[in-house]
Amino acid sequence: MKRTNPLIVQSDLTVLLEVDSPRYLEARGQLGKFAELVKMPEHVHTYRITSLSLWNACAAGLEVESVVDALADLSKYPPPQSVAPQLREMAGRFGALRLERLQDGELGLRVLRPGLAEELARHASLKNLLGDFWEPGVLSVEAPWRGPLKRTLAKLGWPVDDKAGFTPGAGVPMALRETCLSGKALQLRDYQTAAARRFNEGNLAGAGVVVLPCGGGKTLVGLACMVELGMQTLILASSVTAARQWKQEILDKTTLSAEDVGEYSGERKEIKPVTIATYQVLTHRETKPRKGRGDPEPETVTEPATPAGFSHFGLFDSQDWGLVIYDEVHLLPAPLFQASASIQARRRLGLTATLIREDGLETDVFALIGPKLFEIPWRELEGSGWIAPALCTEIRIPMPEHLVLDYATCGARQQPQAAAANPAKTDWARTLLELHQGEAALVIGTYLEPLKRVAEALDIPLLDGSLSHARREALFTDFRSGKVPVLAVSKVANSSIDLPDASVAIQISGQFGSRQEEAQRLGRILRPKDGRRAYFYTLVTADTVEQDFALRRQLFLCEQGYEYRLVVTDAGPPNASLVRPPASDV
Description:
With 586 residues, the chain is of the alpha/beta class. It has 21 helices and 23 strands.
């Protein structure tokens, strides 16, 4: 152990990381593989090792002894003696339960830890999910309970290694083109090939999540997996715009024709060999849920989870799907977890830039979609030139004096919007756009009224949820062509929108402390730009709830290696020199 080492490992599995250590970057890279960043004040960052973070690390091929060795090698003081046994116990639970096919074709849960089978058989929350012993250490499972069982066991701390296999799925001949219809040669990058191979081959083939940065080509990985399987495929997308981008990519890069690809949305109801559906249409209710009735908790489950009132859930059984792709799986609405619980016999691929969910349902993603199979750090792709380098800057702006009392007395629920409406943000947005004149820029906001005021003051078009799909597409097209150099966008543009030329983002408000949203918004400007840097600005009203939210929102990106410049301003006019890009960027 060396006093210059950066880590202090604690018995509760929190890990402190000293920023000023010469081994800081090395340690941060190691921790990112198996721990979660909790907070990051100036000098000491706090990480936490959880069961889920370890299970995902194990699923990605990391051995627990590598974790133990890394902590010991990087620690300032010897880790507490209890840490290594805790890590081995937590990691050892991954693989202790295996779901498999029995000789008669039925499902069985094989328990590989002595004494555990009897404990699970008697557990109150599992009594309706497990059958009798088929043989010692193997409990029978009825097919409809495959998903609910995995979900419940994961929440109890026992992840299931599902080896029960999948339905064959109806075949559909398809291949990737050598040359896209757009005229570009098509060649998968090395990491895209590795991600697709990880899904289609190996110990965990057929179910799991691929994590790639925005701009890293997640769609192409999905197409590669789909083509390798050659089966009827259901693709779930976050919006109509995203669904149509998927269709464009399929037609451009595969041998499938327009007759093979259908859209199932609020506007169209096409079911074809490859069908792209939106989350919105699948979670549309025909009838209102009864007051007080929610999704059943695991301990009260008495029948397979199929939510009532969702009229389009029949799509999951309408075809002999061989593969279901969940685009932006981190956005998956809660009702679709229940639908996913009922289709565990179909292969499932989740695609995302970040597995963070602010609702705490990461465990459900793990249990029902699959473990994290492949991930590559954002900065690694940046270093290879596959995504643009980015400079992130937080600008703290004082609240005008005449509004301070109004903010203080408006109530906790109204304070986030009151902070977002700081009129000084308009002047700063104007200054930043002038600083980056000639570059394609986005002004992004969650609260519509402040966003509208900024858009009107700066005379830029606003794209929000009230616009028709045709109008949205027209604005996106004008932005991509350069006809509209600056576009104001609400949270409808947070994800799955391809704006390759955008190089500047000015965020005037966000959804509370959402790390997920921060990552998605930065992702809008990370398409490679011939080595040019992208600029991400966050305008924060000082000494308000926005300042606290901003600290949390940055966590994921800082975990990926991005550093935020902090600029604290006074009440005067904006000073462009405070935020001017480094000379090397000009």
